[in-house]
Design a protein that fits this description.
14% strand, binds norvaline, 12 helices, Rossmann fold, alpha/beta, binds phosphoric acid mono(formamide)ester, four-stranded parallel sheet
């Protein structure tokens, strides 16, 4: 039988995303029901870049499901260097039930999945952040009561893993999305992502546009979302220039005022006040960033149970 992996959010169908989110809601409501669901199972977590939320929520989540998580840093020994990825995947599959990885290059996690005999979960590469999506849209469901008839406006760095998966999710679910970003290939989505999103939108009716006008994007928006201008791995010396380029796409109170009155503000975190959003926005009444962060835990528990076929 084919082993299922989660490398980008569109590896799941819309129905599967809905199911995982529904299960996450139940897990959140009744955690005691699930304390033995992955009893005796082990999750291997390979990290090539830093993490606060992802590491803590996966480790805690696995423990709450009755299993065990191994944190394994590959900062000093990236995949494919000491031995090929084939061998790493084959060996790890003999020991653990799930492999999760956070890597710089998408090809590395694709190779890991290709050779792994157990499910592989992407904990962030340069192409996707699917675990973030399940937590985020679980939060949107809680706040808005639905995952339809919504408009998301995304701000800032759109040549970006989180942006790509937000676009894929909105495309799967037939939502509206304006991606507001600077012009230029370093700041806009890759062609391959635009193509995938266009195909998905064809069947769902989603309307997804990349635009360069911050105010226009906010009009009619239910959700204002932004991500770091300095993603993991971007060299410090690029910071001043990037700050200048992204500034017109900072989420400030004018953006929040232009969006719908009951719009929510989201950021996957880590966040820098004064960069991708102002302090008043992230610490203001419309910000739901900590509920959003908490839901990583419940969402990932549901993802692991789904991939282990416990649902
Ligand atoms: N949002 C997120 O993935 O956070 P970490 O980088 O802290 O894991
Ligand atoms: N785009 C960010 C997401 C962090 C969760 C990064 O890659 O660092």
């Amino acid at each position: 039988m084919m082993v299922r992996h989660l490398l980008k959010i569109s590896d799941f169908t819309k129905t599967e995303c809905e199911k995982v989110i529904e299960n996450a809601i139940d897990i959140k409501k009744k955690p005691d029901k699930y304390t033995e669901s992955l009893k005796g199972e082990t999750l291997l977590m390979l990290f090539e870049k830093p993490s606060l939320r992802t590491r803590i929520s996966f480790e805690t989540g696995m423990q709450q499901l009755g299993g065990h998580a191994i944190f394994y840093s590959i900062v000093d020994s990236p995949l494919g260097q000491k031995e090929n990825i084939h061998d790493t995947a084959k060996v790890a599959s003999r020991f653990v039930n799930i492999i999760a990885a956070r890597v710089f290059k998408r090809q590395d996690i694709w190779d890991l999945a290709k050779y792994s005999d157990v499910p592989v979960i992407n904990m962030l590469d340069d192409y996707a952040h699917p675990c973030q999506m399940i937590g985020d849209f679980l939060t949107i469901k809680e706040k808005k009561g639905k995952l339809s008839d919504l408009k998301m406006a995304y701000y800032g760095d759109a040549h970006n893993n989180v942006t790509y998966d937000l676009m894929r999710f909105c495309a799967l679910f037939g939502l509206k999305m304006d991606v507001a970003c600077p012009k230029g290939i370093d700041y806009t989505p890759e062609q391959e992502v635009l193509e995938e999103v266009k195909q998905l939108a064809k069947s769902s009716g989603a309307i997804i546009n990349v635009i360069h006008d911050a105010i226009e994007a906010a009009e009619g928006a239910d959700i204002i979302y932004t991500d770091s201008w300095m993603s993991y791995g971007i060299p410090k010396e690029k910071e001043a220039q990037r700050k200048k380029i992204f500034k017109p796409f900072q989420v400030n109170s004018q953006i929040m005022k232009t969006a719908k009155k009951d719009a929510i503000f989201m950021n996957c975190l880590p966040a820098m006040r004064g960069y991708e959003q102002t302090t008043e926005v992230i610490d203001g009444p419309q910000s739901i960033v900590f509920d959003q962060a908490e839901n990583r835990l419940h969402g990932q528990k549901a993802i692991m149970l789904f991939l282990r076929e416990k649902f």
